[in-house]
Design a protein that fits this description.
CATH class of the largest domain: Alpha Beta
Helix content: 40-55%
Strand order of the largest sheet: 2-1-5-4-3
Shape: elongated
CATH superfamily of the largest domain: P-loop containing nucleotide triphosphate hydrolases
Number of helices: 21
Number of strands: 16
Largest sheet: 5 strands, antiparallel
CATH architecture of the largest domain: 3-Layer(aba) Sandwich
CATH topology of the largest domain: Rossmann fold
Number of domains: 3
Length: 460
């Protein structure tokens, strides 16, 4: 607004603005002399406008901070002030012309304690909401496990942990190999938490769960209007969200070949370009990948790129299957039970020797994930504060019976069928090296049905 426009505003309008009943306003000039006091301010300060105008502000309000505003030229918004035994929220604003301070304005933003209280309650509510969303964000993009969460004293597991600790001290790419359920993601979390990027985002990408047509937008993001159905404001990709943090590519073997080429370029240049163009974004991230597949075999078959393998495979960590470390099974089982009891608010239960013997004799095709499933079931089935062999699934009890020669007890037909179905799925996945499409064909079911059953039996 120009000076001419201001001159055209009538005196009546300007006075109505300054003396409105919703604000308590006081104006002083550069010398600290009061030039205007609104009628709303009279009731707050207990001084009439007529007696205040023309006097120095220190005479009207000895504790006024307006002279400091004139000296510093800096505004103070949202400060609290006690007037006549009531807390107020005040704004102190310097008034300038041609770069020079010519006065200052004091304005009460909230003149009643009820409004101040309501503001504080609103701020407290917003802080709680912010804490909630921070917590939710951390659950999605935060890291949950450290090396302390990895239980076991066997030589194989200790060697894997020692190598992972070394990997955590630098930014080199890591591949974690192991059967489903051996704790590949837990190791990835632990490496992130023990390294220099701890506290930053940990972005998990399950390559086996992303439809092929959505792979590029999930990883690299897209600009507004890049394709039909895209958000109007666009979206950042998962790799972009991992800036300064760690990107964990789980089931890297499931990544389509065309995406392997684009991922290789991103790993080489550390630059991401969203679908639909836009400015290339320089991204600083650490990559950790995992798979249960034999990548070298896939390279020979032409389903995985050799150059990408070299880029990912700076450090390789192999995790032992649970059946190869039976000495760790009692430790891991008891740790899982303690965690479940703590979460459920119940006393820790004791595991009887016959149950431990059965657990150690079983071959655990689902590894630690299956062991946790058995622990949850045993807690539900067990009577009292002990878990014995009868509280374990029939397949686990049957393994122990085979070992010690005792007759196997009759089992419910449903349990037998479920056990057989689970074993068939595990066998098919092994025979096809984890290729879910081939395993589904071998089993005579649709791939979607296989995913549903794998989820049911916790084989994903």
């Amino acid at each position: 607004m120009s000076q001419d426009d201001i001159r055209q505003i009538s005196d009546a309008l300007l006075y109505a603005l300054l003396d409105n009943p919703y604000e308590s306003l006081i104006l002083i000039d550069a010398a600290g002399i009061v030039r205007f006091v609104s009628h709303a301010n009279e009731s707050v300060r207990g001084v009439s406008a007529q007696s205040a105008v023309g006097r120095h502000i220190s005479e009207v309000s000895p504790d006024s901070e307006l002279p400091r505003i004139i000296r510093t030229g800096k505004a103070e918004i949202g400060h609290s002030l006690v007037l006549r035994d009531r807390e107020r929220i005040v704004a102190r604003i310097p008034l300038t012309r041609d770069g020079q301070v010519i006065g200052a304005a004091g304005k009460l933003l909230l003149s009643s304690p009820e409004k101040v209280k309501a503001l504080y309650q609103r701020i407290e509510s917003l802080e709680k909401q912010l804490d909630y969303y921070k917590s939710a964000y951390k659950q999605i993009y935060g890291s949950r496990f450290t090396f302390d969460n990895i239980i076991g004293q066997s030589r194989k597991l200790q060697e894997a942990k020692a190598l992972a600790l070394k990997a955590a001290q630098n930014d080199s790419s890591v591949i974690i190999l192991g059967e489903s359920g051996t704790g590949k993601e837990m190791f990835a979390h632990a490496i992130h938490m023990a390294g220099p990027r701890a506290g930053r985002n940990f972005i998990r990408i399950n390559c086996g769960a992303i439809p092929g047509e959505l792979f590029e937008s999930e990883l690299f993001g897209y600009e507004p209007g890049a394709f039909t159905g895209a958000r109007r404001q666009g979206a950042a990709g998962k790799i972009e969200l991992g800036h300064k943090g760690t990107v964990f590519l789980d089931e890297i073997s499931e990544m389509p070949l065309r995406m392997q080429v684009k991922l290789l370029r991103v790993l080489q240049d550390k630059v991401v370009e969203r679908i639909g163009g836009g400015k290339p974004r320089q991204i600083d991230f650490r990559i950790i990948s995992a798979t249960h597949q034999d990548l070298e075999s896939m390279i020979r078959q032409g389903t995985f790129r050799l150059d990408l393998f070299y880029r990912l495979n700076v450090m390789l960590i192999r995790l032992p299957a649970l059946r190869t470390i039976p000495e760790d099974i009692p430790l891991i089982f008891n740790a899982i039970l303690a965690d479940l009891c703590r979460a459920g608010g119940r006393s820790v239960v004791e595991v009887r020797p016959d149950a431990l013997a059965a657990l150690c004799a079983y071959h655990w095709p689902g590894n630690v994930r299956e062991l946790r499933n058995v622990a949850e079931r045993a807690l539900v089935v067990a009577d009292g504060r002990q878990i014995d062999r009868r509280d374990l699934p029939g397949a686990v009890r049957g393994a122990a019976a085979t070992e010690d020669g005792a007759p196997q007890a009759a089992q419910p037909l449903k349990a037998v069928l479920e056990t057989a179905e689970r074993e068939s799925i595990v066998t098919a996945l092994r025979q096809t090296d984890g290729n879910k499409a081939k395993a589904a064909a071998l089993l005579g079911i649709h791939r979607t049905g296989l995913y549903q059953k794998m989820h049911k039996y916790q084989l994903l």
